[in-house]
Input
Amino acid sequence: MKKIALIGMPNSGKSTFFNSISGASARIANWSGVTVDIESVRTLIFGEIVELIDLPGIYSLHSGSDDEVVVHEFLKNNQIDEIFFILNSTQIDRQIVLATELLNMGYNLRILSNMHDEAQKNGIQIHFEKLQTRLQVPIHPISAKFKEGYEFLSKKQKLKKIKEKPKKFSESEIKNYVSFPKTLDTSTTEKLDKFFLHPYLGLPIFFITLFFLFQIIYGVAEPIQDFLGGVFDYFGGLLQSNLNPWLPNLLSSFIYDGIYLGITTVLTFVPVIVIFFLIMSFIENSGYLSRAAFVMDRMMEKMGLDGRSFVMILFGFGCNVPALMGTKIMRSKSIRYLSMLIIPFSLCSARLQVFLFFTAIFFEPRIGGLVLFSMYIISFLLILFTAIIFKKDQADNESVLIEMPAYQLPTLRQNVLTATHEVKHFLTRASKFILGGVIVVWLLTNTYISPELSVADSIGKALNPIFDPIGINDKLIIALIFGFIAKEIVIGALAVIFSGNDSTLPDLLFNYITWQQAISFMIFTLIYTPCLSTIAVIKNQSKSKKLVLTSLIWSLLLAWVISFVTYQSLLFLY
Amino acid sequence: MQKSQIRLLSELSQNSFATVVEIDHQPSFTLKAAALGLKINKTVYVLHKSNNGPLCIKVNTSSFMIRAADAAKIKVIPQ
Output
């Protein structure tokens, strides 16, 4: 099968083109020489089924950035029949240089001059025929955003071998092929940037914008998530009542507690991921994300990060999973890795449920608010602390040059395609991992060493010497083991663990532990191992077992130390 | 070119133009900057400058953010 690789600079609209061709059917394939995920799609191009491969955006072939290494290795180790070189027509003068570099390396190239509509609107004239003759390759003006100019894809086309390698363009020569107006119409972008990048107003505007986006994401997603939860509970009840008469308890428990709960836990994340990516895609395609990086960069630079990390951290306060998935927009591996280490410390809505439950039991409303606020402060301080600690390991203080494209109004189609694409990825990747994890935890809680003692109980007892100094006893340890799957399960797990009594769970907990133990449990829940979905995403996004292990061990260690200091201090003081 | 005229890109104020005369940075930075159009003899325009933070500059048709520390490695002559 013919293989066509997509190459282009960042912000050239390469992914928009790929998404418009692939819809949501792209898949991750293994390619020799590269370890990162590269998406491809089998599609009808030039009257035959070809494999279209989306390579990372690169600025040149020689600066040695992570993405360039991937492209280099891919091209070196895989037989490619043709390259679709996507360039941004409004920046053709500088992007054409990379095309000539590729031609000089002997690749069969076809140039797709994207954003042709934008270029025309801005009065940029490209003399395509002259340019085609000069480069000896076909050039097709297209608009990936509106899926225009794609007619050439449906006709049989064959690239002619170029007779001689094209010479590099000189600054003066390019003017023979492209004429720019004396002043480009960038008034809208400049007017908007006067607000968004204002030295004093920029930051408040950024926070207000984020606050509203955050409200939209979680305001819309949470009710849907709750509704889905209700639907799954209802069908879960039906499933249980239908399974119980027919199947042995153990098998029925495996199907319901293991498989059904595992799958539905994953599915409840879908609304938040859909809405998150609809909005993220809008922000990214509109050009605002690089402005956010600009206003937050000074603070984030000190932590070895850039402004985009901050956006993801804030989104992590809703749910860590989409925030971690969003780190892929960071081009620097070191910044991406460091962001993946700190995002799990963002107090997500699942942990908030546990805290709301505990504060309502142990504290009066006026103190409860303060306790909750303290949790947010601890979460933020841990993010700062972890970033500072791992800055040396992960971040290399590399230079940051971030392109600030002109503002654009993304199309709904563009956003929907991106969101569908991400949800599909999340479901296919995380579900296997989560299902496996759920089954392991089910096995731990349902395999009995003695009639009264499950493996989970024995783990709880074995771990008691470790958890006793922080005030967390056997039953709470088991709830924490469940919380490893998803923090949403902690309360449910406590309900199961304390079941069989006449009193309600709040009453039982109030009599079972002290408020100091409750605080310690809340702090431990806030910090300890991220949930399985989070770990699955870290693993998939980073492809680094070391990073996953670091995230697990560091959070566990930190959780114990901070819970210990807090619990012992509270015992000493009160 | 008079040496006294030379300044660092990071020292330029907002809305000022300058010509790049030297980029004293790592090759990887120089190459990426060149791909974005930031090269010797090019005119840069400082679009925005945050307080002690990065600069937003424009070269030809491209605008991009550059950290102050990186901008301090680029010598320019103000126009």
